[in-house]
Design a protein that fits this description.
mainly alpha, 3 helices, 67% helix, 0% strand, DUF2783, DUF2783 domain-containing protein
Length: 66
């Protein structure tokens, strides 16, 4: 079962998306993947709750499982 937390970015989600797209602008595919990996690790450190992180991993993975 997919459970996604309530939207905590509104009304700034467009600002976040724009900042993310700008961060990727001009990067190669490999550089973009590396940026995403760094962001994931930095966000995980900020969240700091392994249980919550595992739930997020499972939820994200469920979208790939078809």
């Amino acid at each position: 079962m997919r459970q996604i937390a309530a939207d905590r970015l509104s009304p700034a989600q467009d600002d976040f998306y724009d900042a993310l797209m700008q961060a990727h602008a001009g990067l190669s595919e490999a550089e973009s993947h590396a940026l995403n990996a760094r962001l994931v690790l930095m966000m995980a450190n900020r969240i700091g709750d392994v249980g919550a992180l595992r739930e997020l991993i499972d939820t994200a993975r469920s979208y790939s499982d078809g």
